[in-house]
Amino acid sequence: MCRHLGYVGPPTSVGELLTRGTHSLRTQAWAPKEMRGGGTINADGFGVAWWRNGACGAPQASRYRNPDPIWTDPAVEEVLPQLVSGAVLGSIRSATVGMPVERAACAPFVDGRWAFSHNGAIPEWRRVLTAVTSDLDVAATRAGATRLFETARLLEAEAATDSAALWVLLRDLLRSTDSGDYAKTPATALRLLVDAVLRHMPTARLNLLIGDGEQVWATTVHHALSAFVTDDVAILSSEPYDDDPRWQPIPDRKLVSARPGVLSIEELTPPDTERSTP
Ligand code: GLN
User: Fold this and answer.
1) What's residue 38's pLDDT?
2) Structural domain total, the chain
3) What is the CATH number of the domain that holds 253?
């Protein structure tokens, strides 16, 4: 179990958001409430991404990560509160058994305007993600796209973890423009990836969260997620950080997108979807 949180709204203090509420993300590191059998505490590091305008005016994700427990890092109260952003994506980690505890394994993983976090685990992830890469390659080749999904790409993962390898595939989907412009439809990329992983490993736990500085998208496969959306703000969080009644629990197997004023919740894999071919 990890816990994550994506925020889009009025400019807010990055550090304050990590400690906001009676059940803040930092508190969830040592006292999470909705564990669903995925671990006990989230003490294997944390990370946070925020956005600034890049050279062409497009939002660009920056990040800070630390492999130590979030409650031990003074930067959370002494440095990160000085950063202000209209979008934030934070994550605290509980390393899956057998995976390294190191900075490079801490979400968020970032690429240009994208930031990503994975709450869950993919059993036999090396075999499964190699097979998923081949599936994506077959689908891209059929669509006449240049070959992006060669299995060697998985070596680009920052760390030897399921989440880091999964990010390489999602990142490449978001980068590819000729096999479907997934950067414009990131929800479709999430659906494609989750479906492919579940086809090879039905017990995979896949609560994914991505943000581009203007919107956040998430999936629920096994783990908890709640949404808080008003006209001004959109937050997706593994657990509500306070007891405001406007938090809305998201059921399992959903694909969620949120921005201020808009919350969309779709079935992740519609029952009539053809699942046997990539
Ligand atoms: N499997 C991922 C990792 O080890 C995510 C862990 C989690 O959700 N607990 O980093």
Assistant:
1) 67
2) 1
3) 3.60.20.10
